[in-house]
TrEMBL record:
Residues 256-316 are annotated as: Disordered. It holds the Pfam family ABC_tran. It comes from Nocardioides imazamoxiresistens. This is ABC transporter ATP-binding protein. Residues 5-241 form the ABC transporter domain. One of its GO terms (molecular function) is ATP binding. Keywords: ATP-binding, Nucleotide-binding, Transport. Signal peptide: none annotated.
């Protein structure tokens, strides 16, 4: 069972440069959340703050009753045991084969026998489809396999929170689709709390239960997937639907001249909301909602064609 992450009024700066300020959100226990945002908006910085690698200037991050923004190093060490992290490039040790890479956290942080370690490592490698590749070195396999090996390593300590830092970076659309399905299947099996940082619009539209968007040094919106996919908020609408018209430009914000030139332009209609990915075995995840449930509860009419198998999905 995953645990909840409560973030309140979080602010992070590097010197005089404010990365984001007054960020507040709750990552629900056991659910899949995606954090989006233009390049340079501090999404990876946010993940590092959640595991205590970076200290915020203001605010709190409460996990299991402990504020990791202010707690002692001893308490932080204990809280970090709840986490598994998949880094952007897999962060594998190049001189170790995949088996030893995945076994590394168990050897470092537990006193398990090699027999027990082998059982756990092979179980996790089976989860990510890497049985048979355990003797290969990271340099001998594809980027997608390295991602899966990194995910197996993130899972060996049975974390209650799993952070994914751009898991789809460097992957082609087919392997991204396989990875997305794997994430959904893993959440169904281990019921942990998942937080994914990504730029991939297909991932954001089909995988998570909740979506957040960082923009212009603040959290523009965070909430259920259907809320953001039906939103008319300009920056949310523009980013999630990959539109050129809106406040985001090549250098993050458009200037007054660019925005004035767009004034009066008719926005394209919102695309249909695609069905959320389901586990491969067809058994719904604990946190999975009925298609259209949020829209019905909040009196929102979704875009025409939503929640049908043939609903359009953007190519990101």
């Amino acid at each position: 069972m995953g645990v909840e992450i409560q973030v309140e009024h979080l602010t992070k700066s590097f010197g005089k440069q404010v990365i984001w300020r007054d960020v507040s959100l709750t990552v629900p226990a056991g659910e899949i959340c995606v954090m989006l945002g233009p390049s340079g908006t501090g999404k990876s910085v946010f993940l590092k703050a959640l595991i205590g690698l970076l200290k915020p200037e203001e605010g709190s991050i409460v996990i299991e009753g402990t504020d990791i923004a202010t707690c002692s190093e001893k308490d932080l060490y204990e809280i970090r045991k709840l986490f598994g992290v998949l880094f952007q490039d897999g962060a594998m040790f190049g001189s170790m084969n995949l088996y030893d890479n995945v076994a590394f956290p168990l050897r470092e942080h537990t006193r398990k026998s090699e027999s027990d370690i082998r059982d756990i490592v092979m179980e996790k490698m089976d989860l990510v489809g890497l049985v048979g590749a355990e003797d290969k070195l990271p340099g001998e396999i594809s980027g997608g396999m390295r991602k899966r090996a990194g995910l197996a390593r993130a899972l060996v300590l049975d974390p209650e929170i799993v952070l994914f830092d751009e898991p789809d970076s460097g992957l082609d659309p087919v392997r991204t689709a396989f990875l997305n399905q794997l994430i959904v299947d893993l959440n169904a099996q281990i019921d942990a709390t998942f937080l994914i940082v990504t730029h991939d619009i297909n991932t954001a539209r089909t995988v998570p239960d909740n979506i957040g968007l960082l923009y212009h040094k603040h959290l523009a919106m965070f909430g259920p997937r259907e809320m953001l996919l039906s939103s008319e908020e300009p920056v949310v609408r523009q980013f999630l639907n990959a539109q050129r018209v809106g406040p985001i430009g090549m250098s993050e914000e458009k200037d007054a001249t660019e925005l004035a030139a767009e004034e009066g332009q008719e926005l394209p209609p919102l695309p249909p909301i695609a069905l959320q990915l389901e586990p491969s075995n067809g058994i719904p995840r604990r946190s999975q909602r009925e298609p259209g449930e949020w829209c019905r509860q909040n009196g929102i009419t979704p875009p025409p064609g939503s929640f049908r198998p043939e609903a359009a999905v953007l190519s990101g």
